[in-house]
């Protein structure tokens, strides 16, 4: 059965209880997963063009709270018992993959095997500059980082020699609860992303932005073709979809297409999601467009009571 998850408000909410309240609501409403986004720092001036907006405008203004995703997910792990806990996405090149491996394995063990690691290379050059990292190397660093994760999660005596990461005869315990390791989702929509998902991903996670059901179906077939060429079963890679949904009483109607948002009413959102479910989407990561905690909670309520039953029905 197709699964549905909702993004936690670790961005933009000044109420520190917002993450807890939405996580509890999502689990009580029967949603399958909750997700947290990631940035370490954001520039206060001009930024690199945002790839998921027609005009390149970043949707997060300076000064908006942006909580650490792993801290939020660990907190949520302690107050929930069923929902999967995902990163959508973790910008893996910004951190040493051994440190990420330790954090994710710990989250997986403490949550009873509920972690999902979505990763991406990143798009914000200023963030890489601030951390002393070469933005142009981010794709190669991500590829190596995924190799490091798989090595340290599966080998009792792990070694790795790469361009960016190197270690010999080390181990990190505990191993993840899920075997061989938590699912690795590859976020993004470009050709390199698709090739990466085909080679090493369990799930490809593109945004709805810039797609149609027909174009995404063709792209997904291409990913599975590449997986087969890499010696993997076609079924080794599944498809998820990241969707901005605006179910507010006063939605932003000034340009939903510019940011790839789906506007209410519930019937319209259900119709759009159903069209993508038909082409093989197995998990939707839904991002409420919201100004307040009330907006987020109202969106989760409508998704759980009206949208998802219509899609599944």
Task: Tell me briefly what this model is.
The chain is of the alpha/beta class and 313 residues long. The protein has 10 helices and 11 strands. The model has no long low-confidence stretch (mean pLDDT 96).
Report on the structure:
The structure is a single chain. The protein has 10 helices and 11 strands. The strands form 2 sheets. An 8-stranded parallel β-barrel has the order 1-2-3-4-7-8-9-11, surrounded by 6 helices. Strands 5-6 form a two-stranded antiparallel sheet. The chain is of the alpha/beta class. 41% of the residues are buried. Strand 8 (203-205), helix 7 and strand 9 (238-246) form a beta-alpha-beta unit.
Distance between the termini: 11 Å
Give helix % range.
25-40%
- The string of secondary-structure elements, in order, is EHEHEHEHHEEEHEHEHEHEH
Largest sheet: 8 strands, parallel, barrel
How would the global form be characterised? globular
Strand order of the main beta sheet, please?
1-2-3-4-7-8-9-11
Count of alpha and pi helical runs: 10
Our estimate of the beta-strand percent is 15-25%
| Class from helix and strand fractions | alpha/beta
Radius of gyration: 19 Å
- Mean pLDDT across all amino acids: 96
Question: How many strand segments?
Answer: 11
- Low-pLDDT runs: none
